[in-house]
């Protein structure tokens, strides 16, 4: 005789990338799995599953959060921004490729701040939130801002350059002085 067990499902409704989304999930479903499997938003990557690498970072009400450390049920009624949502941010613009990119995405492309791309979604969301708090970082501050995200490919120099370039792009788009004008 086989015994079947059924888990109680909980209705979870969140706003993801500006769209209200709902699903019924077990209480122990991680936010990363909810996004990837229930909502089919696979841009959020799962690396270490311990909150160390930062690949799964999303924005919860604008703040970076390791989605592998948060249960989906605790995201109820919160606003989640995944890497897919960055291209629809108010400061996103159409790039020469025809794709819409926010300043951080554009800077990572311009400065070659990515290689294999696995860690990139976590860096993009982390840096996007960081620049809201510190719009004009120094190189050292940029290093500190990304210190919680791991990359096995780049050596971080181009990621730091990307953070600084993203700050410039944000300033340009806001009508602020360019890097040359500040110098």
UniProtKB/TrEMBL annotation:
<dbReference type="Pfam" id="PF00111">
    <property type="entry name" value="Fer2"/>
</dbReference>
<keyword id="KW-0411">Iron-sulfur</keyword>
<dbReference type="InterPro" id="IPR006058">
    <property type="entry name" value="2Fe2S_fd_BS"/>
</dbReference>
<dbReference type="Pfam" id="PF01799">
    <property type="entry name" value="Fer2_2"/>
</dbReference>
<dbReference type="InterPro" id="IPR036884">
    <property type="entry name" value="2Fe-2S-bd_dom_sf"/>
</dbReference>
<protein>
    <submittedName>
        <fullName>(2Fe-2S)-binding protein</fullName>
    </submittedName>
</protein>
<dbReference type="InterPro" id="IPR012675">
    <property type="entry name" value="Beta-grasp_dom_sf"/>
</dbReference>
<keyword id="KW-0408">Iron</keyword>
<feature type="domain" description="2Fe-2S ferredoxin-type">
    <location>
        <begin position="10"/>
        <end position="86"/>
    </location>
</feature>
<dbReference type="InterPro" id="IPR036010">
    <property type="entry name" value="2Fe-2S_ferredoxin-like_sf"/>
</dbReference>
<dbReference type="InterPro" id="IPR001041">
    <property type="entry name" value="2Fe-2S_ferredoxin-type"/>
</dbReference>
<keyword id="KW-0560">Oxidoreductase</keyword>
<dbReference type="InterPro" id="IPR051452">
    <property type="entry name" value="Diverse_Oxidoreductases"/>
</dbReference>
<keyword id="KW-0001">2Fe-2S</keyword>
<dbReference type="InterPro" id="IPR002888">
    <property type="entry name" value="2Fe-2S-bd"/>
</dbReference>
<keyword id="KW-0479">Metal-binding</keyword>
């Amino acid at each position: 005789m086989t015994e079947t067990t059924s888990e109680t499902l909980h209705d979870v409704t969140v706003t993801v990338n500006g769209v209200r989304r709902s699903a019924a999930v077990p209480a122990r479903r991680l936010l990363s799995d909810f996004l990837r499997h229930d909502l089919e938003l696979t841009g959020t990557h799962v690396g270490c599953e311990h909150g160390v690498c930062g690949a799964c970072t999303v924005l919860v009400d604008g703040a970076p959060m390791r989605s592998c450390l948060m249960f989906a049920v605790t995201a109820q009624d919160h606003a989640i921004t995944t890497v897919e949502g960055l291209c629809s941010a108010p400061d996103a613009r159409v790039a020469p490729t025809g794709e819409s990119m926010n300043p951080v995405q554009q800077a990572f492309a311009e400065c070659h701040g990515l290689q294999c791309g696995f860690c990139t979604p976590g860096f993009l969301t982390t840096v996007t939130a960081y620049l809201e708090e510190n719009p004009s970082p120094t190189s050292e501050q940029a290093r500190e801002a990304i210190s919680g995200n791991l990359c096995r490919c780049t050596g971080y120099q181009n990621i730091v350059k990307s953070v600084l370039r993203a700050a410039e792009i944000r300033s340009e788009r806001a009508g602020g002085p360019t890097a040359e004008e500040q110098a």
